[in-house]
Amino acid sequence: DFDDHVDRTPENCRRFACYLGSLARSERTRPLDRSGVARFVEHAARVAEDSRHLSVHARTLADVLREADYWADHDHVAEIQGRHVEQAIERRIRRSDRVRREIQDEIERGTILIDTVGSYVGQINALSIIDLGDFRFGRPSRITATARLGRGEVIDIEREVKLGGAIHSKGVLILASFLASRYAQDRPLSLSASVVFEQSYERVEGDSASLAELCVLLSVLGAAPIRQSLAVTGSVNQLGQVQPVGGVNEKIEGFFDVCRLRGLTGDQGVVIPHTNIPHLMLREDVVAAAAAGKFHVYAVETVDEAMTLLTGLPVGERLAEGQFPRDTVNYRVDARLRELADLRRAFTNELPSRSTDGRP
After folding, report:
1. Is 282 helix (H, G, I), strand (E, B) or coil?
2. Which pLDDT tens digit goes with each residue over 2-24?
3. Spatial contact of 252 and 282, defined as CB atoms under 8 Å apart
4. Closest Cα partner for 144 from 213, 225, 190?
5. In angstroms, rounded to a whole number, what is the distance separating the alpha carbons of residues 18 and 148?
């Protein structure tokens, strides 16, 4: 069992450069100059999905090397430069991204409903991955939530219609556990809530949308509008801690592309788990937009941090007497759940009593 990733240390980078030289000789391509080697190092870290590692998968590197050699020949130069490696990577993506371009066109025309401005209650932009085998990309999806009087259920509509996988269903059950643990320790959780991926007609799997699902539930319970200029990815546990997810680069770039189509406003960005920071290996255009303040990547450790970013409201910590501070998200959610509990109690008390044989 051989690992095709190595640590990205200075020594391993030197060895990687030697490996590229050997690969160029075996593939009978031009040698790489310093900029070409540097671009290959960045690409290898991107393939490894971790800025701390390098992928040494020979076939993947050789495919890019041969195409970069073609572009160097096209320019009539003796060495493969960084721009040739970049051109090879871009052209390989271009040959595989027909589905991505079609989805972006549908979003731009408004057929797929995604908002990138404004704030709305019970609506959030989540990020998912579409994997086509040799190419994968991120796309934003709208998640909505509703809540009403019930018996403590959080209904996963994807699961009910058998479009939700086991891991996704597990993530939704964790949301119900979080709500009960934080807000219903001294009374029944008396709500019935529903969450759904809108305009989704294929199987949904994974728990990387569970942070977005929890935030949209808190939004609808607390009547707290969520900024549509932000998209969210991340898993969450029963304690409200945000956990890392895969494909974070593609997810960020997917929302960036949609925002760029509509015009970058400087308010747009993505909320990711703090533990995903080492995995960031973003495209140069995304990095440039972030450096210019036109796009943002926010890293959070808890659902409370995410809600503060999404709503602009303080979340609020429970006081010594057990209440939450007024004008906070937690206060609004707690007050609404208390109201539902009171309604359920009043409704139960109004029911006619029954005899032991079940007759009125």
Report:
1. coil
2. 788 899 999 999 999 999 999 99
3. yes
4. 213
5. 63
Residue 240 corresponds to which tokens in the numbers above?
Answer: 């409200």
Which residues are the active-site residues? 208, 251
Phi, psi of 4 (to 5 degrees): -100, 15
C-alpha pair distances (Å), 230 with each of 193, 274, 296, 352: 23, 16, 9, 49
Our CA angle for 252, 256, 262, nearest 5°, is: 155
- Residue 192 CA, chain-centre distance (Å), reads 26
Could you tell me the end-to-end alpha-carbon distance of the chain, in angstroms, rounded to an integer? 70
Local structure of residue 32 (DSSP, 8 states):
B
Backbone angles phi, psi at 138, to 5 degrees: -95, 145
Residue 107 has pLDDT above 80, yes or no: yes
pTM (2 d.p.): 0.88
DSSP result, 213-266: HHHHHHHHHHT--EETTEEE--EE-TTSBEE--S-HHHHHHHHHHHHHHH---S
Using the predicted structure, report yes or no on whether residue 28 has a pLDDT greater than 80. yes
Using the predicted structure, report yes or no on whether residue 85 has a pLDDT greater than 80: yes
The candidate with the shortest Cα–Cα distance to 257, out of 218, 227, 285, is 285
**Is residue 206 within 8 Å of residue 165, measured between CB atoms?**
yes
Give CA–CA dist 69/78, Å, rounded.
10
Which range is least confidently modeled, 172-176, 222-226, 236-240, 253-257? 172-176
Helices (H) and strands (E) in the chain, counts: 12, 13
Classify burial at 1, counting beta carbons within 10 Å of its beta carbon; exposed 0-12, middle 13-18, buried 19 or more.
exposed
Question: Amino acid identity, residue 287?
Answer: V
Rounded average pLDDT over 197-222: 86
Question: Which whole number is the average pLDDT over 93-110?
Answer: 90
Q: How many CB atoms lie within 10 A of CB 161?
A: 9
